[in-house]
Amino acid sequence: MRLRRLSRAVRPALVIAAALVALLAWAVSSPPGSSPDDDYHMASIWCGTTDSTDLCEQTGVPSERALPADVLEASSCFAFDPDKAANCRLDADTIKLSTRGNWNGEAYPPVYYSVMHAFAGHDLSISIVTIRAANAVLYVGVLALLFFLVPLTGRRALVWGALITSVPLGVFIVASVNPSSWAVISASGLWVAVWAFFVQSGWRKAGAAVLTVLLVIVGAGSRGDSAAYSVLALIAGAVLAFRRDRRYLRDLLLPVGLVAASAALFFTAGQSAVVGGATVVKNDTYSFSELLFINLKALPQLLTGFLGTWGLGWLDTYMPGIVWVTALSVFAGVVFWGLRLGDARKWLALAGVGAGVIAVPLYILMHDGVVVGNGVQPRYVFPLIVMFAGIAAFGFARSSLGMGRVQLGVAAIGLVTANSVALHVNLRRYVTGLDRVGVNLDRDIEWWWNAPVSPMGLWAIGTAAFAVTVALLLSIAWPRVPVADSPVSAPRPGGVLEEADTFRVRVDQGASGSEAGAPTTRADRRALHGGQS
């Protein structure tokens, strides 16, 4: 009994540690300048304050800044050329002028750049790795705090939503310099935090309130569109927790206030210009109806881009079929499985977020007069998809979501395989370029960090850490006995929607007729009477 209790206490800590190592492996799997538009974002971080510093000097021209050349040219030799290794010759001593940064037009909110400026320094490599590591720690830390603050049913949705959307874009973008990292962090936890604020009490309610405010700041402070996503997450969480009483109306004051604040932050960002008619671009090739028809047909290609159908980095690191087919299968399978169970609140929240997943990219495409493949990238809508996946997994009474051992095993092996191959491809892209093939990443190295761990060593560490994370989560969700479904209805506690958790029946051939259909474990008996396991 003591050993079992110790195991239950240690496993969450091991999951947190393994997940962090897996993300840190991705953080150092590519060089400075390798995430989308890094020249813009790195320059904006180095100039993250309004004052002139030794990292970023004002020149007297409002649209211009003087920065170290290596910050501006980190990706100059490899961006858009997947066969070129990241062996750029960079000059940290030369100062160059640039008009490409957030100081010129303020397209993005300043919060992310101001915070990350604290990690910027004269050594580009150390600064970039530190920023990426900080984002990885923030992501794991937020999910860990939420895990211990929210009720059990919220934990399951939180973990499943993050896990099935993680490979490959999720792990790449979270552990990057790109402000989309914060957008993903906010979307992963905000809807769960606000739901927990409504359903919890005492210090857990207070903690959920603090995290709700923090995640709104993280989201709205990183990207203009993420401020809009924060509004949707706040509404979704409130809908899931809806009940008819005065306490709910009182609690509603927090998300309503944060919705107003998020909306205000959205309209202060340059990206909000997309909602104005003055910036509409007319397509000279297609009529409005033709452009709409083309984009509707091709929209699934954009929406599945986070699973590897689009390239990573500067959209030039393409994933092989074993990555995107496997990741797509796991994502679609779990989401579809989640649709077996729900009530009006879940369906309303899911429909709202799902409508956003479709409407946001489609609106931008039509506004800019472009077809899928131009202008809009998968990372723009990815935070909404993370929310959608989490809500789809919401309401189940068991960590397995009622799936059997074979289903869980297939999903686990698929995710571990997809992550391992994606990490290998990402390393190959920058270590030698994709014109080289083979498993051994240590052969003919053209770029690597000044570090004791080789590319192959990092690949092994990253693969093992992700596998350990999934294995530990699998051990928590693993059904104690083989199961079969039985559609018996039973009352559920707050947030749990499952019939009777499709309660467990033994499939032993020796089970008697009187035993068939009877709960076989203590957890099952609690579930039948409204308890949680």
Concise structural overview:
This protein is 57% helix and 2% strand. The protein is mostly helical. The longest helix is centred in the C-terminal third of the chain and has 27 residues, at 405-431.
Description:
This protein is mainly α. It has a 3-stranded antiparallel β-sheet with strand order 1-2-3. The protein is 57% helix and 2% strand. 49% of the residues are buried. The two termini are 17 Å apart. Residues 484-491 and 499-533 have low confidence and may be disordered. It is built from 19 helices and 3 strands. A hairpin with a 6-residue loop joins strand 1 and strand 2 (65-68).
Distance between the termini: 17 Å
* Overall mean confidence score, pLDDT: 89
Could you spell the SSE succession in H and E letters? HHEEHEHHHHHHHHHHHHHHHH
Q: Could you list the spans in which at least 5 consecutive residues all have pLDDT below 50?
A: 484-491, 499-533
Strand residue content:
under 5%
Helices and strands in order:
Elements: H1 2-27, H2 38-46, E1 57-58, E2 65-68, H3 69-72, E3 95-98, H4 111-116, H5 124-149, H6 152-164, H7 166-174, H8 180-199, H9 202-220, H10 224-240, H11 246-251, H12 253-268, H13 288-303, H14 321-338, H15 344-368, H16 378-392, H17 405-431, H18 455-477, H19 522-528
